[in-house]
Amino acid sequence: MAELIETITADDPDELGIDLIVVHGVKTCSLQPLNDGWYDPMFKRTPPNTRLLEYDVDLDLSENFMWKDIQDRSTGLVQAICIEYKDIKALVRFELQDNLKNYLKAISGIAFFATPHITTCRDDTSQQLASILRYQSASLSEGLFIENDLTSLAWSSLKFAELKLHCPILSCYEQTPIKIGHDILGRPWSALADEPLARTAVFDGKLVAIDTELGSLLEASDCLVHCGFEEFLAGILSSAKEKREGCVIPLPVRDNTQTEVGDGTTTTTEQEASSDLSFNQLASFSRRSATVINSPSPLSPQNPCVVRTASQPNSESSSSFVVISQQDSSFASITSAEFRAITPFKSEASKVPDTVHYLPLAHQQPNPDFVGRRVVLEQMERCLLSTKSNCEDSGLRSCVLSGAAGIGKTQLALQFLHRQQSHFDVVLWVSAQSIDSLSVAFSEIAIKLGLETKENAKDPVASREIVKGWLAEPFQDFQMHQGARLSWILFFDGADEPDIVHDFWPYDGQGSVVVTSRDPMARSNIYFGETGIKLDTLDEEDAVALFQRLLESGTSPESYQVLLEVAKKLDYYPLAIVHMASVMRRLGYTPARFLQVYQSEYQQRGLHAFKVGTRQGCELTLAALWALKDMSAGAARLLSVISLLDSGSISEAILTTAPERTKLEDYPSLNFEHKLSELTSSSIVFRKAQSIIHAQNEITIHSLTQDVVRSQLLGSESQTVAVFNATIGLLTAVWPYVTRPQFGYHADNRIARWDQCEKILPHIKRLREMYGILSESVRPCCATLDYLDILSEVAWYHFERFNPEECMDYVQATLTTHSDSKEYHPRIVAGQYGTWAQIALRTNQCELGLEKMQEHLKIRESIFAETGVVDSHIAAAYSETARAMLMNGMSSEARTLIHRSIDLRKQMTKFSRLQLHSPLMYLSWIDCYEGSHQDAVDKLLEALQDREVEFGRDDQEGMRAGELLYYLGQVRNSQGFLKDSFQYHQRALSQFRATSGEDDFYTGLACYQVAGHTMRESDLSVTETLLEQAIKIFSRVKYNEPQLARAMFQQSKLLLCQGDDVGARSLLERSAVLRRQYVDFDLRLAEELEERDFEDVIVFWLR
Length: 1103
Known about the structure:
The protein contains 40 helices and 24 strands. By secondary structure, it is α/β, with parallel strands linked by helices. The chain is flat, with a radius of gyration of 35 Å. The model is unreliable at 88-99, 135-145, 246-343, 388-393, 601-623 and 691-695 (pLDDT under 50).
């Protein structure tokens, strides 16, 4: 068995020093084994009192070397370390393939010399690495052998980054190629571990150039790499000195052994481990202090984790990194029931199903009338299907189908799917017509794949990134990154604006992607790569075949010629042929009769090809209009409404829930089914039932047909106004409103309604686009109260989801549309100022929030003075203005307004004590602000009792109970009742997770607070989980940076407790940088900051 050889002993084992473990022994033609005395020049660069140990990998590149050979040597290296430092128990656990995590935490730094890493998918990087392996091959047929080895190295590079060592990483790259042998023709073969290859995936990694020959690297010459290495070692020793001179930090050692602490009690710990020590590296181990607080004796100086010190200080730190001892008598242990609130944040599901199909209802079956396109289908197969030379893990395969509207892009993609469906485990089809439709689809896909539960999929951005992450590593067991790799194909249908697909594109994906787009630029490498196919019209044979299949006609030469003549008149355009065939069937025309009528129409108009306009360069042919000819009035009305909605998926509930709201004379109500069948039989729209049991049908329509109908609709202003307002009326019947006035308690159903809102949003966005192109004379007729109401609702929806930009976009759109309206609607204007104020307050713009909230209150008061009606709007206006005042330090004024709000609520016709939730909570904030903490507790308990009477202790009616529990935890913590505070914070976290989801902002707040308790209890494992979750949540939105800075500061304290000085300092600096963005002038160093400094940049009610 290989062992560590002590080459140089330490001058004084009892003093501070460094153990330097040198891993070497990869020999090439030009780099021979190290000679005796090689270490003498190097030790001129090391700090005093350094001990040198070496480990010989003993590998020769001429003996069929593979990178995996170096990785295999890591086993011997770890075993040698275990034996050297007498940790036989760790050695036994290592042989059982457990993790040696404590050894990883003991590493104070790692230096790589000309050691390659793979952190990029660039071809030149792979080729450079392949050249290192290929020189000794007898032929170039060993490409697969090399590719597998490169994959192994890439995996090791990734796993190295995932270790999160938080120690200095120095990687030295070559500038001069080194000869490593000769090829089969005798030519010299050289390789270069240049800067891209030497770059690690570690956040704080540093790169230094090797500005000398690799063979003379250890000679005593003053070159850049030596200076960099000397500075690297000096930094490690300096960090150890700072720790020795500061406080003794508790380092959790988990080895299932009992350790006696200062008061005579015992603690039980459990060993953790990791075996991922590999690579041709120079690893330095700092022997650092690792004693428990109040422990009378240090760990053995022979342990590589221990810094040799003359004495062990036992005093509290003067810095802000203070860890409270376990001797806090007010802190209680966690019960098993309470512990459920702080379990790891993982999805309930753990595996992706064997097969997953996410398809629109209309696409779940192949089109029986599809013909032709054989050459294109074969081209798609070569591009998208795996072959021996194009294996599953070779990267992303994409194909772009572009062409004019109605040319058959979607049908071709659908045909390819159903022909090749057996090649894919996962099939995903999304409408790419808008960002909203893409966001909804990716959220549903995350749930469909089992990556998120429905309860937790509340953040569209997070769901999008989770899906993209799985597409990059499509393991069936996605949590453990193991198991079968599932093959997948993703369709972006209707990406006519390619830019909006950018954020959803799986750049690192390991599968196939198909894009359909009208934009010819989509085929270029500006967007989706160079693999693209431009679709033209059908050839003669396929066009006639399509006619025959649609008309179920014979194949006689006479009929063939007539159909060919008709196809020529239609320019062999697929969608035109489909529509004309529908007209011929409905009117009972034979091909010859139709041709005669069509000829007459042609002669009257004197046109060669019937055009009715263009859209983005795509011609709108008369053929599409022919399908509208002789249509009944009811079907035409229904079609006109459908043409204004998003074409991808239209729920029939929108069209049928409240037909009376359309106020259209011919709109179908009782005879809806009959009129819809008229449209489906003409292939104008397509219908598909979701299921036999629950028949919630959906309708789709081709965008070209919508364009034609709209072009006719816009020709008449009266029709435009009537149909636009009718469509708005239908949407108002299905939108789940929350901003309309209430006269009693309004249930908190914001989470439950989000799914319904998301499905309606694409239609509202389409109507906004429609409104934007209306003439100035038409807009006032469309700026109705219903339209303003629904725009206002969308603004509030985005506030609930905390999408500040989208929220303000709809606030401004509502106010702009209101300026077009014929009437003044004070309720709408007041509502927008209120929403604006809420966004300002939520994003720490306190003065702006107060300004807008006062404008909101002023309008509400004028409405109340005029009508005398007491409703939720006027009551909430007083309490929310009070909150804005309090955030600006006006506590006395705020208290007066809240009491006014309470009085008004009690006057409502359907008053319930549940309506006092917000006023009592805001009064408790004022009490805290003024120092009356017990009064604050009393008010919060009063509000909580009201809810428990109605909903029980396990209240999951929205997140209101969670808010009360959270603030109770805050106040009790301020009073010093840590046990009570911990219990309230745990209950708040449990309630937020159950109602808002694991990724909600308030869940992040609760995670942070509970982490403070568990850290005080020295349960650092749970603390780490909670802080990681909080940081993940706060990292998603820029406006959460104050909370993010505070959580990162707390995590830096955790790392210090775990003995990771370097990682703690790095995280502290990053948190300080974030904080500086929110303070006017503060020249203090990061280490001078305390937790209250981070609290000060957070609005007090979110602390």
